[in-house]
Amino acid sequence: MDFHQLFVFTKVVEHNSFSKAAEEIFLSQSTVSSHIQSLEKMLDVKLFDRVGRENILTPHGERLYKWAQKLLLLKDEALLDLNQGMAEFRGTIRMAASSVPGQFLLPKMIKEFRAEYPAATFNISEYPSKAVADKVLSGSVDVGMLGEKYENEKLRYVPLLREKLVLVTSTDIKFSGAVRIDDIKSQPFVMRHSDSGTNSILDRFLKKAGIPKDQLNIIAYTDSGQSLIQFVRQGIGIAIMSEIAARDYASHNLVNMYEIEGFHDERYFYLVYNINKTLPLISKLFVDYAGKWQD
């Protein structure tokens, strides 16, 4: 059994696609297919059922995937143990990140991590917090970074940074001191979608304050934190958003930022991983690094 063939096999499983796996590991699709066929011939089992255009993992394929992850991890651990330089250790960390930690925390973390492991690469996709948790649960990514906990016995959360939410307005709108939520209910609001961590915290605050969400004058929902801030800058609406993100724009006088009276709820940004998934060694090293990370 060839380690490279096992590696190719795991990529096909993770992408559920021969073509996408080939694209990630810089091989032709025919070469990927040849590796899978060689594995099937050597093991005398069928790893995928070809149903129309889909490739469905067989029970033998599911079992091999679990063993392949363990064997590849063991190989990486052996190489790392034998390689005294350690900085030469290579690997790709597949991540899903929600918008705020992906934009404001992850670049700094990657810079620090790559100072120790300069050959590490990152494959990052952006999703709302709930989708990040789902991607980690499904095993389609190694780790996630998000702003809300979604409880599941398979998920482990590593707290990274604590923060709160603030009100942001265009520079044409000015308040004196902290703003009462009752005073801004009639203002046009731009909101994040319900799957975002920001929206979950805001929902809890409104419920605690006895304010039905439909009392707010919500004119737009968006998945993108960048779009949200542009709506605010153009004076289309005000928004409640991450203090970390808002501070960056307020410091450049692009928006005004205000605390919300009585809104003292804080949240953490987390790194999350699936304890039932055997992580590549480079991803395990990143999880260990995140456990010691301080902003």
Mean pLDDT: 86
**Number of contiguous helices:** 11
Percentage of β-strand residues: 15-25%
pLDDT under 50 segments (min length 5)?
A: none
Largest sheet: 7 strands, mixed
Using only C-alpha atoms, the radius of gyration works out to 23 Å
Percent helix range: 40-55%
The helix/strand order is HHHEEHEHHEHEEEHEHEHEEH
Q: What gap, in angstroms, lies between the N and C termini?
A: 44 Å
User: What is the total tally of β strands?
Assistant: 11
Tell me the overall shape: elongated
Structural class: alpha/beta
Written account of the structure:
It is a single chain. This protein has eleven helices and eleven strands. By secondary structure, the protein is an alpha/beta fold. The strands form three sheets. Strands 3, 4, 5, 6, 9, 10 and 11 form a seven-stranded mixed sheet that branches. The protein has a two-stranded antiparallel ribbon with strand order 1-2. A two-stranded parallel ribbon has the order 7-8. Helix 1 crosses helix 2 and helix 1 packs across helix 4. The longest helix is centred in the N-terminal third of the chain and has 24 residues.
